[in-house]
Design a protein that fits this description.
Blueprint: H1 3-16, H2 30-33, E1 42-47, E2 50-55, E3 61-67, E4 73-79, H3 82-85, E5 95-100, E6 103-108
Length: about 140
């Protein structure tokens, strides 16, 4: 007898007599066997006893896993912030990085030289009681009622 036939007889005997302890579970890789059905833009991820379809993220994005307490996996692609992570090629001395959706751009730093001149002036106020600062008001300026 072939090994496969012996294995099948072993499985059938254990199932027939209710002895499930001797059965070993062999994971079938649905992804490798081509059994899995995933949509366009998805890749197959094999799991023990099952598989799941996960999005394929384009360049500049990474897979984000939002696992739920119920073991439900919600995955989506999120933008990689190359500027924040230092994954950019901007010259930090002359440029600054701006993150964009799926990429980044380097903008030129604009530096201006600002020269400030400070002048000081002294304002001299006349002493009110001084005999030199008397102001005469002509009598015609008075209004009588």
């Amino acid at each position: 007898m072939h090994r496969l036939e012996l294995f099948l007889i072993f499985i059938l005997n254990n199932l027939l007599y209710g002895n499930f302890d001797n059965l070993c579970i062999i994971d079938v890789d649905e992804c490798a066997n081509g059994i899995a059905i995933c949509g366009i833009g998805e890749r197959c991820v094999n799991m023990e006893g099952d598989y799941r379809c996960s999005p394929i993220c384009p360049s500049g994005f990474r897979l984000r896993n939002n696992s739920r307490p119920t073991n439900e996996v919600k995955e989506h692609c999120e933008d990689i912030n190359e500027c924040l992570l230092g994954l950019h090629a901007c010259n930090n001395l002359t440029q600054y990085c701006i993150n964009t959706n799926g990429s980044y751009v380097c903008e030129t730093r604009i530096t201006t030289t600002r020269i400030e001149t400070t002048t000081s002036s002294t304002t001299r106020r006349p002493f009110v009681g001084s005999r030199y600062n008397k102001v005469q008001i002509p009598r015609s300026s008075f209004v009588s009622y």
